[in-house]
């Protein structure tokens, strides 16, 4: 049977237009029975910051989803996320999502306030994950990703968004354990199997292009996508912005693992046609060279290390740096530190230790880190 993806036009975050478009995307993709159920809505709040930057799922999009789920009879709605640089004062207020939970009667959840272990017997890289404990109390998880490019994974959407269920800096340990894009992608699919999200609904009204996921540029895409299958949604979304969907490891390995899809042709797009909304000039992250791909498939640690050295490096731009230290806190391999220079403190980096995870780039609040050869 075909897996449905609802693909619907939505020009703005105006509530009337959003509500109608969301309802249509849900209906076209098959819908969800949430009557009497307890839900966890998982937006992408990579940085708790101004929604105009398009780093996080837009608060009005989250509001529209909450309204829809209530109308469909959901008993309880929880909303939360945990950025990689989850600070004690992370509140979700700058993103506007916390206020939306208060105004709609949903519960805001701080993912660092309790954790639990979830398992998947079919995991290829790992069979267990430490995630927020709210997951034990809800009937369904619904992923609410933002359509964005991603320096490390090329693209981030419904599957990658689940990584935020792992509280705060615990995420860094997964970067150390799964160094290459393919290994990391396989681990994300293990997480997908452990979480089993009931639905994914993507905010592609304004996406992010260029050096995402934290420092790219807002790009109006004017779409909403919805699907019960996160991989199907990601396949269509990554195609729309111009990727060959097989280049995105979570798409490619999901087919090999038969995660609800055997072939991309098993996806039925309902509503708009992909060809009609495809964007030719979306600024993408450059893909790997063929040697990197061979190294990736060999899964050998020694090759992985060699491959790290060939990848673009993070460069710390002293003039832009506000010395917040976030890049140092998040670096799982202790590859960077503050050093005293003639103009005061600056971020030094040991490229032999750097695993090119680009977490520092993701969390830098002022775009003071460039990724280049
Ligand atoms: S310096 Fe940046 S890219 Fe390198 S390992 Fe640390 S966080 Fe990752
Ligand atoms: S490079 Fe960015 S994250 Fe690192 S200390 Fe400077 S401003 Fe903060």
What would your notes on this structure say?
The protein is of the alpha/beta class. The protein has two domains: 275 residues, LarA, N-terminal domain (Rossmann fold, 3-Layer(aba) Sandwich); 61 residues, Alpha-Beta Plaits (2-Layer Sandwich), CATH 3.30.70.20. Helix content is 29%, strand content 25%. It contains twelve helices and 16 strands. The strands form four sheets. Strands 1, 2, 3, 4, 7, 8, 9, 10, 11 and 12 form a ten-stranded mixed sheet that branches. Strand 3, helix 3 and strand 4 form a beta-alpha-beta unit. The longest helix is centred in the middle third of the chain and has 15 residues. The chain starts with a strand and ends with a strand. The model has no long low-confidence stretch (mean pLDDT 93). The site of one iron/sulfur cluster has 13 residues, from helix 11.
Helices and strands, with pairings:
Layout: E1 3-9, H1 15-28, E2 38-43, H2 59-71, E3 76-81, H3 97-104, E4 107-110, E5 115-119, E6 128-132, E7 140-144, E8 146-150, E9 154-156, H4 170-177, H5 181-195, E10 199-209, E11 217-227, H6 230-240, H7 249-256, E12 267-271, H8 274-277, H9 290-298, H10 301-310, E13 313-316, H11 326-330, E14 336-341, E15 344-349, H12 359-363, E16 369-372
Parallel strand pairs: 1-12, 2-3, 2-7, 3-4, 7-10, 8-10
Antiparallel strand pairs: 1-11, 5-6, 8-9, 10-11, 13-16, 14-15
Bound molecules: iron/sulfur cluster (2 copies).
């Amino acid at each position: 049977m075909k897996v449905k993806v609802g693909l619907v036009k939505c020009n703005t975050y105006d509530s009337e237009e959003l509500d109608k478009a969301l309802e249509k995307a849900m209906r076209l993709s098959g819908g969800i029975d949430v009557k009497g159920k307890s839900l966890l809505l998982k937006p992408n709040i990579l940085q708790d910051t101004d929604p105009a930057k398009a780093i996080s799922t837009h608060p009005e999009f989250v509001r529209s989803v909450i309204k829809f789920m209530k109308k469909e009879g959901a008993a309880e709605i929880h909303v939360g996320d945990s950025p990689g640089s989850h600070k004690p004062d992370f509140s979700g207020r700058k993103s506007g999502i916390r206020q939306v939970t208060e105004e709609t009667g949903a519960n805001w959840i701080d993912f660092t306030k309790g954790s639990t272990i979830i398992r998947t017997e079919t995991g290829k890289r790992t069979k267990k994950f430490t995630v927020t404990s709210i997951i034990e109390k809800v009937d369904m998880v619904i992923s609410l990703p933002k359509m964005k490019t991603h320096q490390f994974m090329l693209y981030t959407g419904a599957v990658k968004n689940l990584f935020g269920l792992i509280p705060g800096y615990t995420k860094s340990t997964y970067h150390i354990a799964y160094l290459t894009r393919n290994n990391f992608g396989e681990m994300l699919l293990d997480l997908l199997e452990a979480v089993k999200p009931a639905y994914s609904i993507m905010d592609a009204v304004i996406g992010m292009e260029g050096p995402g996921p934290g420092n790219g540029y807002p790009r109006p895409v004017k779409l909403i996508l919805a699907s019960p299958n996160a991989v199907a949604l990601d396949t269509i979304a990554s195609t729309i912005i111009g990727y060959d969907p097989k280049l995105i490891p979570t798409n490619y390995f999901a087919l090999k693992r038969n995660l609800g899809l055997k072939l991309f042709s098993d996806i039925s797009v309902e509503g708009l046609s992909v060809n009609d909304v495809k964007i030719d000039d979306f600024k993408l992250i450059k893909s790997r060279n063929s040697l990197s791909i061979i190294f990736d498939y060999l899964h050998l640690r020694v090759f992985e290390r060699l491959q790290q050295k060939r990848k673009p490096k993070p460069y710390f731009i002293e003039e832009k740096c506000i010395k917040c230290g976030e890049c140092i806190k998040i670096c799982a391999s202790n590859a960077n530190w503050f050093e005293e220079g003639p103009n005061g403190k600056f971020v030094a980096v040991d490229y032999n230790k750097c695993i090119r995870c680009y977490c520092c780039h993701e969390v830098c609040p002022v775009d003071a880190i460039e990724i280049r050869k």
